[in-house]
Amino acid sequence: MLQIHREGDRFQSDHGWLRSSFSFSFADYYDPNNMQFGPMRVLNDDWIAPSKGFGMHPHQEMEIVTVVLNGHLEHKDSIGNTAQTTWGGIQRMSAGTGLFHSEYNRSEEESLELLQMWFLPSVTGLKPSYETTAFDTDAIKEGLTLIVSGDETKQQAGRVASIHQDMSIYLSEPQKGSSHVYTAEQGRRTLLFVLEGTIDVNGDTTLRRRDSARIADEQELVLTASENSRVMLIDLP
Known about the structure:
globular, 237 residues
């Protein structure tokens, strides 16, 4: 099963200082048939104007991963963490039993673009936690690079963020004409999200910028770039 979701079909929200595209039901967008994919609950693109952001607000029982695509994100939370992240960095926050946090674009000139994903945790009642990691922006040109994992044996301090769910997130920047192959385990789900460029999947499906595919019962995926591209792959139970 390969279900395509085109960029033009995503819900668009515009608050002036904040522009967002939602892949799943979120905020003002509600579709009972589009609530989640496995434990994945949210996949949002956010554009935030200079000197704007989200003030302190609560989260509970959710794993939240943020990838900054352009600009610098400032994070503060009620458990004492402060951090700034840009492209090449990942934020992972486990809300657990509950915490407050803020997210701001502190630049007075540069806009901020980020990708935020929410996942249901495999266990509840966890102590809230937060971490930042950094991936090799050159390595992702060579193949699928692991950036987040729920497998303790694959987690690397400072390189691969941990998450309380049986899942993994990969980033890749295949160059024009190159192919990257991913082999999923039996019974797993895969979500593909094209950040930039154009990707052909198994030679018969084309995904363009901000298109996504929700995939089940497909063990081998051959991702071929018809132009220099950037793609995210998420392995899910």
